[in-house]
Design brief:
The chain is built from seven helices and seven strands, in the order H-H-H-E-H-E-E-E-H-E-E-E-H-H. The chain has 223 residues and is of the alpha/beta class.
Length: 223
């Protein structure tokens, strides 16, 4: 009788070991950034007034200059929300692609703007590194957010900084220097006013001339 019990235990142990060895591994926990944008609540999460949105007090921004020489830039939307962003992008003198079903006249007849007049599809992100979004459609924005994060694309919503990977400052760009002004996305109109005040009260051309000469003299010293 004792021998039968021992054999039974050995048989059970072997089955348990086999079960654990062949058990389907647990499903990995989704990226928490994407998890809060699930199809069930994606419209609510794109609402800037949502209580569960990112806490602005905890947001941290590192001022950097991103080298976009070899980067491809996409803009999804071509209405009023994107018009000012278009002017900022003009200063880098680089071609961008704009996708939208309706195109504002300010986007037309610009050699550096490639227009694709159509509705957004996930495949539109292929090959791009940076995307700006201004479509005024929370459900579509949520789709783009998830698609872009899966594709590893840096994303900026022109009117929803809390869901953006980066924000763009107001820019004063000259030949030899740039001045960047930011209210961290909280008051773009105020940033514009600061920029205009600087333009009115400081001789930016004289500063550009000074900076150019400084660079030349510095280069001579290092040769």
């Amino acid at each position: 009788m004792q021998a039968k019990k021992q054999k039974y235990r050995e048989t059970v142990n072997r089955k348990e070991k086999f079960s654990y060895a062949t058990r389907t591994p647990p499903i990995p926990i989704p990226n928490p950034v994407l998890q809060i944008k699930s199809p069930k609540n994606k419209v609510d999460t794109m609402n800037p007034g949502n209580e569960e949105s990112r806490n602005e007090e905890n947001e941290k921004y590192l001022p950097v200059l991103l080298n976009v020489t070899e980067k491809k830039i996409l803009m999804i939307g071509a209405g009023n929300a994107c018009r000012e962003k278009l002017q900022s992008l003009r200063q880098i003198k680089k071609e961008i692609t704009v996708i939208a079903p309706q195109i504002h006249e300010d986007f037309l007849n610009k050699s550096w703007v490639k227009i694709v007049q159509k509705n957004y599809e996930k495949s539109d992100l292929t090959g791009f590194d940076i995307a700006y979004v201004g479509v005024n459609d929370p459900e579509l924005e949520s789709r783009i957010l998830i698609d872009a994060h899966h594709a590893g694309i840096l994303l900026n919503f022109v009117d929803k900084k809390e869901f953006s990977d980066f924000i763009s400052p107001s820019v004063l760009q000259k030949n030899h220097y740039s001045i960047f002004i930011s209210t961290f996305g909280k008051g773009p109109g105020a940033a514009r006013h600061i920029r205009q005040t600087i333009e009115k009260n400081i001789d930016l051309e004289e500063l550009d001339h000074f900076t150019g000469n400084y660079i030349k003299n510095r280069n001579r010293k290092t040769i």
